[in-house]
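Data availability (excerpt). All sequences and predicted C-alpha cell strings are deposited with the supplementary files. A representative entry, Winged helix-turn-helix transcriptional regulator, is shown inline so that the format can be inspected without opening the archive.
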Amino acid sequence: MDRVPEPHSGWTFVTNHSRVLAAIAEDRTTRVRDIAARCRLTERAVQKIIADLEEGGYLTHVREGRSNVYRVAPDTLLRHPADTPATVADLLSILVRHDSKRPAASAVEDHDAP
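C-alpha cell line:
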C-alpha cells in the first residue's frame, strides 16, 4: 500500500475525478489512503479531488468517529454540456461494468508467477 504512484504521461479516457468517485461509490467508508492506492494517485491528489467533487455537488461526507462516510449524489448531471443528460449514476454504471470485467490483482499476480 505504500507504493509510490506510477508515473503517467499523456492523456487517458477516464479522469482521476471519475476514478476517485467510483472508488467511493464502491465503498462509502473507504480511506483516502486506500483510494490513492487503488487509483494510483497521491493522498494529497485524492484529497483535492474529493474537495472538488464536494464543491461541485457530486459528493458529501459526514464524520463518524475518526472516519468519513461519503454519499455520492447519483442524480447530479455530469459537467460537460456534451454529456447532457447523463448523470453520475450513468457514469458509475459504466465504470462498474468495466471493473467487473477486470481480473483481480491477485489473479494477475498468480498468473505471472513461475
